[in-house]
Amino acid sequence: MASNKHFNNSQSDLSNNSDATDPARPFVPNTVTFARRTNSGRYVNYSRDDLDSEIGSVDFTNYTVHMPPTPDNQTTDPSISQKVEEQYVSSSMFTGGFNSTTKAHLMDKVIEREANHPQMAGAKGSSCAIPGCDAKVMTDGRGQDLLPCECDFKICRDCFVDAVKTGGGICPGCKLPYKNADLTDQADQQRPNGGGGSKMERRLSLMKSNNKSAMVRSQTGDFDQNQWLFETSGTYGYGNAFWTKDGNFGSGKDGDGEGMETQDLMSRPWRPLTRKLSIPAAVLSPYRLLILIRVVVLALFLTWRVKHQNQDAVWLWGMSVVCELWFAFSWLLDQLPKLCPVNRSTDLQVLKEKFETPTPSNPTGKSDLPGLDVFVSTADPEKEPPLVTANTILSILAAEYPCEKLACYVSDDGGALLTFEAMAEAASLQTYGNPDSYFSLKRDPYKNKVKSDFVKDRRRVKREYDEFKVRINSLPDSIRRRSDAYHAREEIKAMKMQRQNRDDELLEPVKIKKATWMADGTHWPGTWLTSASDHAKGDHAGIIQVMLKPPSDEPLHGDSEGFMDLTDVDIRLPLLVYVSREKRPGYDHNKKAGAMNALVRASAIMSNGAFILNLDCDHYIYNSEAMREGMCFMMDRGGDRLCYVQFPQRFEGIDPSDRYANHNTVFFDVNMRALDGLMGPVYVGTGCLFRRIALYGFDPPKSRDRSSGCCGCCFPRGKKKNHIPEENRALRMGEYDDEEMSLSIVPKKFGNSTFLLDSIPVAEFQGRPLADHPSVKNGRPPGALTIPRELLDATTVAEAIAVISCWYEDKTEWGSRIGWIYGSVTEDVVTGYRMHNRGWKSVYCVTKRDAFRGTAPINLTDRLHQVLRWATGSVEIFFSRNNALLASPKMKILQRIAYLNVGIYPFTSIFLIVYCFLPALSLFSGQFIVQTLNVTFLVYLLIISITLCLLALLEIKWSGISLEEWWRNEQFWLIGGTSAHLAAVLQGLLKVVAGVEISFTLTTKSGGDDVDDEFADLYMVKWTSLMIPPITIMMVNLIAIAVGFSRTIYAVVPQWSKLIGGVFFSFWVLAHLYPFAKGLMGRRGRTPTIVYVWSGLVAITISLLWVAINPPAGNTEIGGSFSFP
């Protein structure tokens, strides 16, 4: 094993502390022999004293640890044993949990049909040649049989282990001892296979010792020519020290010239990965000036309103003034964070040059990008169709990111076999991306296509995808028929056993639990179709199944046997894992937040990507390079202080008019861009790229270097000496100093998994930006992440099962400081707030091509319930310790105002409801909110309205939204404010005062099953109590208009000014509620309900006019002249 000096002397503090807290763990010293390999290939042994004295030398930095052969440690090729172990793990389903043994169930097949991808679990292969064993032979990344003996005797993993451990290492075929088969490549030789410390510690040590010359260059900014010549095969050429013997540095074996040229290595200017694009001053300056003008005018107007009471209707004046004061305050909270909007751009070409181009620190040009874990969460296959989830998985597998650095984890919180098999079908599909999105495009698919093969290939891919959709849609019936058949077989077996045991006795009916059966003929360990003990939605074991095993380090090209020629295509796929956390009665599983935290822990043990991308099951990757664009921000200078990169949410399947503002463009293109100019946008629940250590609750690097207290210059805090190693100084938490953090606190925070604790410094190191510039203070050396990954073993997956158990979070800080935060239905906003409160920053990444696309509820009832959930979470935030009023000094004042607005905006509904009834009350009473419509009032009203319109136009200018989108947002603001927001305030108060818990149902994800009408859900009217306030407001205002007209017409001295004021504001309310009224009409093609309403209004108006023309007897004067007072 290759290691370094630091790793030899001491392990990482976190792992040391975790071990120190377990007194029951015995320490067993290993007897090892240390040796150094010379240039001739001979090993020179070192004693411990010699090693300690010479280990500091650069020449002897790398050493090898050799363990002598023992009966349990035969001289077999370690790469073979590790490969067969990984193949065994990837073909097994691991289950376990609280008070239960972790079991590995070898899966012959995971779906009915045969798996055809070599990485997939249950892939086809040869059978073991050992008599009585029908297991499959282990295979490599291409699907070829992995045979440990030169005689090519076919043997499975279990039989191979038995032959090595109990059979003396003798091959059952040729009866000769196993020899080293030539199955390893260069990557396998570099992989650490032994030595002290845990797997994570060895990996961290190897990364830090990888390519010392890169560290020298990153620290000085200059390239050390002598050291490069010493460590590589470089030699002096024609006046240049950077030429290799073949005349090209980092080229392929054939010298194809794809390596580094001379000018690429000499004096290359440093270029940033991202740029901040400021809004033009011609737009931003007038925008800020208008905000200032409107603030001043509002202040003057409110002062005038307070001083000039309406003595005829003080109650009406009082209610209107209170509402207007609140509206002004609410508008100020919403507008102030918009003072500094910014745009950002990325340079993917620079990213490729820095991380995937041959350099002196990365001669082979392997990807130096950090690992990335993608989380997809689903809970109910009935409300979240499996086809939607499968399309999301397909888009992840096709993402433009190095597949060896990418891993996808699917959390099935319902533990449904339907989701499991749908995921397996997606893994077995040969077409990746999102075919459903591609084949539903309106444009001509053959535009600019000239090759005839394209038509044939497209037709075949479409047919394969159509067959895939049919298989997914038929899965519920297939699982049910299969379970019924197996159940009938079990009943027959039970009856036969009963007859054999009871010859002449009266037979009783046999009762057997109706289980749900998998494709391989075994019980499904998750939720059964017919619930039973240990197999219900809230009561089942934890499940982990590796659907696609980790890809090999080298490209794996396909063949031309199928309908497409893949000989030049790398067919490797990312790691794909199915996870269903353990659930037991009596435990609070914390809904989606708990499921995400389980994925954080499981992924840390299995792949430990430095970054995490979380997606809802209905949000697929629309831009295959979105991950790279997000990584540009994380890997740029200063990126180590970014906790997450938030992408905007874009939606498909929305009606063309966007009746209910489902696109939400005002929020995603105006508010979020504005927050990007402060500390960053809020986290919105999906489409977010996280830094793993930020989720772990650590502070950003160097956030505590500044003095604290009321006056840092007068009363500076004395600095304590740091004894923590340099690599762990970024792992700090605010309430603990460095020394306390490195003691027994960490295991109590994260739990008792040493695997998890050891992974933390590795994730932190991998997430650092490149130290390719002297200004990068907390960077890592280039080329440090080009080492191969660790192979999966059964111990690793078993540990992952342990950390997703229902008891693991007990007495830890998961959900309170670490991971997704519990206690709110909007855990996303709270999680992002906690990170900003610790001093982290975030950025908003708007890509030219939409990064992700998803679905949104276009039905009115579903939309209102979605808004209700968001608003209820905001009310919970306001009444919790996550209120922005209690934020730390690390949060900027404008960012604090933005978070304060998040918690306050639902309370605007109380004043909005009152204000919507004021026009009707004015018309009913014949009074108005002011004494008379004088010039001062009208001028103030005109200036306020004009400034609002101008601000809207400028926001449209710098954000790129349309005027129609802005108006739709205004309309739904009133619809949601008078319905869902009011209900959220009431429910939030009930929870705070009476402790009544709030439960919400999942938002239904449409699978697009109705082919006759794409927008069928839009016209479906589903009654909900949330509709009562808006309907009441509409009815009251319509009746008030009629009453106001009739009173004015019949009045002896008509008050036309008050009528116009009341009617104007009533129409303002009705115009905002028009989409709501349209939603009550029903489907197109039928007679809308609104027609009958307007027919009644027209009839009433005509009747009133008729009465005015032909008045009743005894009244000769109707109405009067119209004039303003």
Automatic annotation (TrEMBL):
<dbReference type="GO" id="GO:0009409">
    <property type="term" value="P:response to cold"/>
</dbReference>
<feature type="transmembrane region" description="Helical">
    <location>
        <begin position="1031"/>
        <end position="1053"/>
    </location>
</feature>
<comment type="similarity">
    <text>Belongs to the glycosyltransferase 2 family. Plant cellulose synthase-like D subfamily.</text>
</comment>
<feature type="transmembrane region" description="Helical">
    <location>
        <begin position="1089"/>
        <end position="1109"/>
    </location>
</feature>
<dbReference type="GO" id="GO:0071555">
    <property type="term" value="P:cell wall organization"/>
</dbReference>
<feature type="compositionally biased region" description="Low complexity">
    <location>
        <begin position="8"/>
        <end position="19"/>
    </location>
</feature>
<keyword id="KW-0808">Transferase</keyword>
<dbReference type="GO" id="GO:0016760">
    <property type="term" value="F:cellulose synthase (UDP-forming) activity"/>
</dbReference>
<dbReference type="GO" id="GO:0051753">
    <property type="term" value="F:mannan synthase activity"/>
</dbReference>
<feature type="active site">
    <location>
        <position position="828"/>
    </location>
</feature>
<feature type="active site">
    <location>
        <position position="413"/>
    </location>
</feature>
<keyword id="KW-0961">Cell wall biogenesis/degradation</keyword>
<feature type="binding site">
    <location>
        <position position="384"/>
    </location>
    <ligand>
        <name>UDP-alpha-D-glucose</name>
    </ligand>
</feature>
<protein>
    <recommendedName>
        <fullName>Cellulose synthase-like protein D2</fullName>
    </recommendedName>
</protein>
<feature type="binding site">
    <location>
        <position position="592"/>
    </location>
    <ligand>
        <name>Mn(2+)</name>
    </ligand>
</feature>
<keyword id="KW-0812">Transmembrane</keyword>
<dbReference type="GO" id="GO:0030244">
    <property type="term" value="P:cellulose biosynthetic process"/>
</dbReference>
<feature type="binding site">
    <location>
        <position position="383"/>
    </location>
    <ligand>
        <name>UDP-alpha-D-glucose</name>
    </ligand>
</feature>
<feature type="transmembrane region" description="Helical">
    <location>
        <begin position="898"/>
        <end position="921"/>
    </location>
</feature>
<dbReference type="InterPro" id="IPR005150">
    <property type="entry name" value="Cellulose_synth"/>
</dbReference>
<feature type="transmembrane region" description="Helical">
    <location>
        <begin position="314"/>
        <end position="333"/>
    </location>
</feature>
<feature type="transmembrane region" description="Helical">
    <location>
        <begin position="933"/>
        <end position="954"/>
    </location>
</feature>
<dbReference type="Pfam" id="PF03552">
    <property type="entry name" value="Cellulose_synt"/>
</dbReference>
<keyword id="KW-0328">Glycosyltransferase</keyword>
<keyword id="KW-0472">Membrane</keyword>
<keyword id="KW-1133">Transmembrane helix</keyword>
<feature type="binding site">
    <location>
        <position position="616"/>
    </location>
    <ligand>
        <name>Mn(2+)</name>
    </ligand>
</feature>
<dbReference type="GO" id="GO:0000139">
    <property type="term" value="C:Golgi membrane"/>
</dbReference>
<keyword id="KW-0333">Golgi apparatus</keyword>
<dbReference type="InterPro" id="IPR029044">
    <property type="entry name" value="Nucleotide-diphossugar_trans"/>
</dbReference>
<dbReference type="InterPro" id="IPR013083">
    <property type="entry name" value="Znf_RING/FYVE/PHD"/>
</dbReference>
<feature type="transmembrane region" description="Helical">
    <location>
        <begin position="277"/>
        <end position="302"/>
    </location>
</feature>
<feature type="binding site">
    <location>
        <position position="413"/>
    </location>
    <ligand>
        <name>UDP-alpha-D-glucose</name>
    </ligand>
</feature>
<feature type="binding site">
    <location>
        <position position="591"/>
    </location>
    <ligand>
        <name>UDP-alpha-D-glucose</name>
    </ligand>
</feature>
<feature type="transmembrane region" description="Helical">
    <location>
        <begin position="1059"/>
        <end position="1077"/>
    </location>
</feature>
<feature type="region of interest" description="Disordered">
    <location>
        <begin position="1"/>
        <end position="29"/>
    </location>
</feature>
<dbReference type="Pfam" id="PF14570">
    <property type="entry name" value="zf-RING_4"/>
</dbReference>
<feature type="binding site">
    <location>
        <position position="377"/>
    </location>
    <ligand>
        <name>UDP-alpha-D-glucose</name>
    </ligand>
</feature>
